[in-house]
Amino acid sequence: MKNVVRRNAILLAAGLVFQSGMIQLAVALGTVTLVSVTGIQGILGAGPAVFLIAGALAVGPAGRISDRVGRMPVIRSGYVLGMVGPGVTAAGCAAHSGVLVVAGLGICGAAQSIVLLSRAAAAEMFAPERRARGMSIVLFGVVSGAVWGPLVFGPMFSGRALTPHELVVPWLIAGIFPLAGLGISLAVRPDPKTIGGPHTALGDARPAPLAEIVRRPGVLTAMVGAIGSFAVMVGVMNLAGYVSVGHGHSHGDVFTIISLHIVGMYGLILIVGEVVEWIGRGRAIVFGLLVMALSNVGLVWLDSIAGMSAALFGLGLGWCLSYVAATTELVGLAAPSERGRLVGLTDLVSSLLGAGLALGGGVVYSGAGGSVPLALSATGLSVLAAAWVAGNRLPAPQALANAEI
């Protein structure tokens, strides 16, 4: 069984390598695409918001369905949506239709949130003391996908004005990446939910109501850590491309910033999994959120490509620590028949809050505020989340182990 778990984890990671190619384009140029097609600069926060809200609305039902039918059928549907979304966005660019672009970005967002359920699927295949390690193996696949930006999309956009017509082909190419991920996902057998059942004394018994699950010791604290880190990260990340262009940088340079951000998120994740279990999940959540806060403060002064890349790298690294620790904790506090719903609820709230930050940040940035209040607001939210987690302890490791064995 150990070899099966390792093989499935590697396959899940390989799928994310290709999925990240589509996501890089959606993150780096989703905002630019919507503004280019509509010609309305004041809606620059709408692109990320649509992406995140659609992901939020999709992941809750996806999590519940995965509790009933298994993880892989749902994850594979995410790859299918990942092929459809870029095609619809490309059609919107060709037809100069803002409605189609919004629909395409929404489908891309839904695809991303559903495919990322792979991380929880990976965690539940491993024994409780190795779950952070298992999740890190799968998420490491995303950092490999960071090469797609500089190698494929960067040269493609070099010297271009990014008119709607010039955006059609790149979006069509982006839809090819999830096709490869879908093919890889077909080889994941047996389903991670089946493998994960023996790792908890709760087994696959009748799931408790979601309100009851959230009231369990440690669940709300872990949710705050996951929600705070994810929302701040995506809110800042999705506006970084437009902010960099506002500082006078070219569109091709955006992919350098986003790629280094992805390296920060996933480049050290194999080490992060071990660090989380070594220092404790609660400390890892707090430390990660504080690293995010410092990185956001840095954006007040750092406006060069190198400076923004360094700040976004730190933002990604802080997210990696806090989010892996928080999600690992959530997986351990739920039975197999509850995990999809709990992680789905957490992702729902995370994405909605991230969408709110992107919309609000877009309004602030396009007005007189610029990037400074955006960076300071993100810093404040990171600190508040860290303070909450620090003041509300997670269950002791021994108590958690006794609950699961």
Number of domains: 1
**Can you identify the CATH class?**
Mainly Alpha
Sheet bearing the most strands, described?
A: none
Second CATH tier, the architecture: Up-down Bundle
* CATH homolog superfamily: MFS general substrate transporter like domains
| Coarse morphology | globular
β-sheet strand percentage: under 5%
Write down the secondary-structure element order.
HHHHHHHHHHHHHHHHHHH
Number of separate helices: 19
The CATH topology comes to Growth Hormone, Chain: A
Give the radius of gyration: 20 Å
Indicate the structural class.
mainly alpha
Oligomer: single chain
Distance between the termini: 18 Å
Written description of the protein model:
By secondary structure, the chain is mainly α. The protein has one domain (2-404): MFS general substrate transporter like domains (Growth Hormone, Chain: A), CATH 1.20.1250.20. The chain contains 19 helices and no strands. The protein has helices spanning 2-38, 46-69, 71-95, 98-115, 118-125, 131-144, 148-157, 164-174, 176-185, 192-196, 210-214, 219-246, 251-266, 269-279, 281-298, 305-332, 336-366, 371-391, 397-404. 61% of the residues are buried. Mean pLDDT is 82; it is low at 397-405.
List key phrases describing it.
405 residues, Growth Hormone, Chain: A, mainly alpha, 19 helices, single chain, disordered C terminus
Short synopsis of the structure:
The chain is an all-alpha fold and 405 residues long. 81% of the residues lie in helices and 0% in strands. The protein has helices at 2-38, 46-69, 71-95, 98-115, 118-125, 131-144, 148-157, 164-174, 176-185, 192-196, 210-214, 219-246, 251-266, 269-279, 281-298, 305-332, 336-366, 371-391, 397-404.
